[in-house]
Amino acid sequence: MEKKKLIEFRNIVKNFDGQFVLKGVNLDIYENEFVTLLGPSGCGKTTLLRILGGFLEADEGHVVFDGQEISKIPPYERELNTVFQKYALFPHLSVFENIAFGLKIKKMSKDVIEQKVMKMLKLIGLEGYENKNVTTLSGGQQQRVAIARALVNEPKVLLLDEPLAALDLKLRKEMQYELKRIQQEVGITFIFVTHDQEEALTMSDKIVVMRSGEIQQVGTPEEIYNEPANRYVAGFIGESNIIPAVMVEDYKVRFDDITFDCVDFGFKENESVDVVIRPEDIDIVSKEQGKITGEVLSVLFKGVHYEIMVETVPGTTVSVNMHVIRNTDVTSADGKEKISANDFYVDIEDVDTLDDKEIIALSNAQAWNPATDEYTSVARIEHQLEPQVGTYPVAFFTAGGTKIEKRIFVVNQPFVKNEKANEAVMAFNFFITVDEIRESHALDTDLKTWANAQGWKLSDENTSVELFVDYDFEAGEIKEGVYKVTFSTTGRELKIHTTDAAKEGEEVGLTFFAEDIHVMSKVVFEE
Amino acid sequence: MKKFSQLALPYIIWAVLMLVLPMLLIALYSFTNQGNTIISFSFTLEHYGKFFTDKDFLLVLSRSLMIAVKTTLLCLMIGYPAAYVISRTGEKIQNFLILMITVPTWINMLVRTYAWIGLLSEGGLVQKICLWLGLGEVEFLYTEGAVLLGMVYNFVPFMILQIHSALCKMDGSLLEAAADLGANEVEAFKQVTLPLSLPGVINGITLVFLPAVSSFFIPKLLGGGQFFLIGNLIENQFITAGEWNFGSAISMIMAVIMMLLMMLVKKAESRNQAQEEEK
Lengths: 527, 279
Description:
The complex is a heterodimer of chains A (527) and B (279). With 527 residues, chain A is an alpha+beta fold. Chain A contains 11 helices and 35 strands. Chain A has a 6-stranded mixed beta sheet, sandwiched between helices. Chain A has a 5-stranded antiparallel beta sheet with strand order 13-12-11-14-35. Chain A has a 5-stranded antiparallel beta sheet with strand order 15-34-16-17-33, with no helix packed on it. In chain A, strand 24 (378-383) and strand 25 (390-398) form a beta hairpin. Chain B is mainly α and 279 residues long. At the A-B interface, helix 2 of A face helix 9, helix 10 and helix 13 of B.
């Protein structure tokens, strides 16, 4: 069926206070389509809709409606109607008068108005409500009145600005079917704005995925779901496993050191790509049968299916010794001030950039008033650090002159490299007192600070990798001694939706078909 | 809840002492003759009769009502456009303009009215401007125009503030909805803005009409002896003539008239609403 082009956006640019909300949007919308503009808040979808409605003017570009440029036409002369986010019903008018508003403006005769309004009330299932005050209606009913008020004018296009956002879940589902039914019955174009991907998939003929003022992909719900254009679309629509990969040659893609058959082609040889595998496309089999193997990390029952996380590539790990020592705080002569600090290790490469703030953090230096238990500041630090391996004295002073002397060990710390996962991690042995551990409110974070634990991408030193902390002591009952603390990165974890249960800790095999691997070109998003 | 309602007791006592009691006393005065003692009253309708049979008194009454109506209409004509324009400006300018309208009310009304005497009097600023414009020697002070000017000047802020707050309460998306449905600016104003601002207009009318009808120092100062209103009459009876009972009777008559007028306004408002709902 040949459809007629109804709306054309040509290179629409809009900025608010120097911030670009739309960065040159091009989009065609056809007759009798249910089009959804989908994206998170701030992606520009509502702005685009308001430009079409005539409530905003684009800085650049053209809007063509039915073959006519409409950028300069005021909203009241455009042949389209809007259902506003909060409905914007006229509180001083009844249901009937609200729906009749547009017709009265057009000076239609009374009996025609009555006929049309009654027909609309029937369409939205609110017969008998014509004399009700709109403020007494429920959210769902107000929503229907807002739709009827727009549709009664027989527009060529109906714009809907997140109209279901204010409704509860059950009503929202109901209205999704209702809207689709109304659209099919009246046979006009609906342009629907939402941030809800499920809503978009349910109702649309065509989905426009937007991000930061740019269109990422336009397609049917099936196309968007099965063949997302990039990592962003794949992540926004449905659940997905997105894995960085390399396209070895046509029909061959390599990730996590294994080359897989796939159905994609047309990429450059050895081009960096992203691969998406939907959780429902992966099957759990025995270790021997799997294309890849891994350890089951968690199993969640979700009703129809289980959501199982399997770690196929272990993370990178580094362990350090935590020396738990006696308290060594110093009290001032008058007994009104206390100061404490610990010896600590620092990497030779970091000496140059080490500032007082970091020294305080690493040594956990603190000063306080023992009578009130209130913290005071560590006013001054004295040291003669040099970028050479060795032991250097450091002194911390309070404003009152109370002093504690400690040592800084400058070492050439090796780090753990994991080429396969493109990661490296590093951490240092450290000294800490019993009290400091017991008083810690966020021990994992504190341990990372004290051990100066860091994880980064081998390919880019400035991209940090999140670390997880593991230890087997009870913080509340710790005594002096040496303890092992382990810092590790997450490896490759795959999410799997299956109806078969698996056991946590079990070694399993994973399998999927070549057509379940969807290769996408890599995109760099500027924030 | 019970405990909370007990907290209102001091205020109730205060209100009875300060509001209800004096009013009851005025009512009592208006129905009695002079020279009563606490134990012996002689009731009479003589004062009411005196008022309604004297042409001069009725003339003063009608003149008072007329000038109050004129003041209210003028305040509405100035206040609505002003409030409308203010409500459409940006937040900062809006706050500033509202402050500018409020500031004069911080200064005593009497003082501000005295200032007008200086401006309007012979050889005052207004006359000089008229001369300069070639309008000749125009007498302003001690005319109805001067009284009207004083009243509008004093009461117009109340009108503006009431209408402004009603306009601000209106959701801006309603105007977008009206435009979306094909209404141009004029139609959107007639169909949406105006009806939604009516409660503010009614509040404004009440706040202007009531003080205007009973005002006595504005006509006294700006109208001189020539422009005698009901407020002046009451003041006269109490202070100059010493006829407390007659003064009380006039006050009672005014109170009843105002009550009736307010009931009328309220009724018009609710009928208006009922009609909207009926349609």
